[in-house]
Amino acid sequence: MLTPIKTLSGHQNPVYALANAEEDGLFYSAGNDKGVVEWSLKEMAFVKVKMPVQSSVYCLHLFDNKLFVGERSGAFSVYDLKAEKVIIYINAHTKPIFDIKTVKGKNELLTSSEDGTVVVWSLTDYTEIYRFQVAYDTVRGIAISPNEDEVAFGCKDHLIRIYNLTDYSLKRSLESHTFPVTSLAYHPDGKYLISGSRDAQLKIWDLPNYELKQTIPAHLFTIYSIIFHPSLPYFATSSQDKTIKIWEVETFKLYKILRGHSHSINKMIWSADGKYLISTGDDRKVMIWEIVDYRL
Fold first, then answer.
1. Contact of 1 with 13, CB cutoff 8 Å
2. Of all helices (H) and strands (E), which one includes residue 288?
3. For the chain, first and last CA: distance in Å?
4. Which of 97, 192, 211, 241 could form a cystine bridge with 221, CB 3.0-4.6 A?
5. Which of the 8 DSSP states describes residue 204?
6. Is 100 within 8 Å of 76 (Cβ atoms)?
7. What is the C-alpha separation between 240 and 221, in angstroms, rounded?
8. How many whole angstroms from its chain centre is CA 40?
């Protein structure tokens, strides 16, 4: 069973982004109040404002003890957690950055934006390697397949576009959602891709052929986050409808509906040890949910 054990307050405006630290027991949040906040899971408490930012933060991503901070301005910062300082600030896009992901095998970083472009960056020196137009409007989400052979982009024009990661060539486009695609996640073993949309539906795409396996009317409004548990056979979805739902990974059976937020739930993460679910959203709250039973 998942049960709420702590609500952390401190943000003064909606929160859009969460990321785990590599150091056990720490995580980060950011949103519309101009700072990245560090929290302790061990103490269930605020630690400090880790860094100021120049505009609202729409995404956080952590890799190799570096925190990547994507802003509404179209810029991103790289904060070195060991040196405790921003090591570079890059004006990457002309419009807001909505997602950031790393391609570990290629030592590359991807940023996607409201300007419809995706940019590939070197993780060695943060120089731009390649820039390509994925859509003519917002590219909201990025999902990288477990074996890193392809990447999926969720777009405002309601399409999912799949690209080869070897050369960033377009592989195929998936059309089934009727509104913008707002969340994406690959099954950890690469069995399928899940997409969520403003149409409130989850779509299950079988791999490797991307056949539409199932459509689930999962929520009442936009689905903003889809995350697989690191070890248990469940995934979680969160929505503008103020709920979190827990699903079984093979049957897609709905196990639990979690209520506690009073506004849209914009982002979720599992703690590194899988013991906690962390959620946040427009109500400015960061909620901690604990797994007290394997069966949830």
1. no
2. strand 286-291
3. 3
4. 241
5. E
6. yes
7. 5
8. 20
Question: How many CA atoms are closer than 13 Å to the CA of 55, on its beta-carbon side?
Answer: 15
Q: Is the peptide bond before 233 cis (omega within 30 degrees of 0)?
A: no
What pLDDT sits at residue 34? Answer: 82
Burial class from Cβ neighbours inside 10 Å (0-12, 13-18, 19+) for residue 250 reads exposed
CA 177 to chain centre: 19
The answer to whether the beta carbons of residues 11 and 284 sit under 8 Å apart is yes
The residue count of the chain comes to: 296
Helix (H, G, I), strand (E, B) or coil at 105: helix
Measured CA to CA in angstroms, residue 3 lies from 83, 150, 243, 295 at distances of 36, 36, 14, 12
106-122 per-residue burial string, b: 16 or more CB within 10 A, e: under 16: eebbbbbbbbbbbbbbe
Residue found under tokens 């950055």? 97
pLDDT tens digits in sequence order for the chain, 296 residues long? 789 999 999 899 999 999 998 766 899 999 999 899 999 999 999 999 999 999 999 999 999 999 999 999 999 999 999 999 999 999 999 999 999 999 999 999 999 999 999 999 999 999 999 999 999 999 999 999 999 999 999 999 999 999 999 999 999 999 999 999 999 999 999 999 999 999 999 999 999 999 999 999 999 999 999 999 999 999 999 999 999 999 999 999 999 999 999 999 999 999 988 999 999 999 999 999 998 766 55
In angstroms, the CA 85 to CA 173 distance is: 40
Using CB atoms within 10 A of its CB, is residue 48 exposed (0-12), middle (13-18) or buried (19+)?
A: exposed
